[in-house]
Design a protein that fits this description.
The protein is α/β, with parallel strands linked by helices. It has 10 helices and 14 strands. It is globular and about 50 Å long.
Length: 315
């Protein structure tokens, strides 16, 4: 197998999207099935943009696990490191869709999700160490053995780009855990850190993008990106900053926008783009997915992102 350019590690799920918009789960009559889980979606998004991608995760020995592998292969993402837990079931996630900004999630990941049982023997350590870009997520630090496995993989890195997505889901952490501690430990081993306002506040105590980015950069990353929703995206790399405004779209479902941003970020980082170009492209990819219903199935191709960017220059 040709070595992947992008390897992501962590959460996977089967997402069930309501086909009736603007109603509660109690009122939904039917759902559409889609591949989900932020690191998994990022791998799909990068593959849609032409990058060789692989995901390290685990599913259950069930029909949904079979679906995950089939969906990944259909999207062009290597499923060779998708393990199978013999006991735990593949997670499912239900969502409600209330445009433009309310999309509550209901996670079924108990007693533990298979992806939280990732161990070093579940993937080729040399491939992870050498990959041009390795992507980790905060949810992977919310329990063992996933936490130790992810930390070990990050420590092994020789490849040039390690991205840590703060990916903070409070409901997936147990009482007494310290997500800030692990967010900062991961940031210290990353070259790039990305998160939204709530996530950087968790990691730094500040919702001010510039202050939070500066705090995180002191830990060691070269680039920190803060997604601010309707206020756009702030990024700092060294002394250089970029503030990219949001792109006006009719929001259908915002759940996959961050993952589309992540996959596009991977693409641009590997291409060596300058900061403003990098953030504008990723921002446009996120806007496209926000205007669609699903996550993985909605990831854009390069030509779609470029077309949206070109249209913005003529507004």
């Amino acid at each position: 197998m040709t070595p992947p350019e992008v390897i992501t590690m962590g959460r996977v799920s089967v997402d069930l999207y309501p086909e009736q918009i603007g109603v509660t789960l109690a009122q939904v009559r039917s759902f559409a099935k889609s591949l989900g889980g932020s690191p998994t979606n990022v791998a799909v998004a990068a593959a849609r943009l032409g990058r060789r991608s692989a995901v390290i995760t685990k599913v259950g020995s069930d029909g949904f696990g079979d679906y995950v592998r089939q969906a990944l292969e259909g999207f062009g993402v290597s499923a060779g490191w998708v393990g199978t837990d013999p006991v735990l079931r593949t997670p499912i996630v239900f969502c409600e869709v209330h445009p433009p900004d309310y999309f509550p999630l209901l996670f079924y990941r108990e007693p533990q999700a298979p992806d939280m049982r990732l161990e070093p023997g579940d993937f080729d350590a040399a491939s992870v160490a050498a990959a041009p870009l390795f992507w980790t997520s905060g949810t992977g630090f919310s329990g063992e053995p996933s936490r130790s496995t992810t930390l070990g993989a990050m420590r092994s890195r020789r490849g040039p780009i390690t991205v840590h997505d703060l990916d903070f889901r409070p409901g997936l952490w147990k009482a007494g855990d310290d997500p800030r501690r692990w967010a900062r430990e991961a940031a210290a081993m990353a070259t790039v850190v990305v998160g939204n306002l709530e996530e950087v506040e968790m990691a730094t105590g500040s919702r001010d993008p510039d202050r939070a980015a500066a705090d995180l950069m002191e830990l060691g990353p070269e680039l920190v990106i803060v997604k601010q929703g309707p206020r756009g995206v702030f990024a700092r790399r060294g002394r250089e900053t970029a503030l990219v405004p949001p792109i006006p779209v009719e929001v259908i479902c915002g759940l996959g926008a961050g993952d589309a941003f992540g996959g596009a970020l991977c693409h641009g980082l590997l291409a060596g783009w300058e900061l403003d170009r990098l953030i504008r492209f990723a921002n446009a990819a996120g806007a496209i997915v926000a205007s669609r219903l699903a996550c993985a199935d909605a990831m854009p191709e390069d030509r779609e992102v470029e077309a949206l960017l070109a249209a913005q220059t003529h507004v």
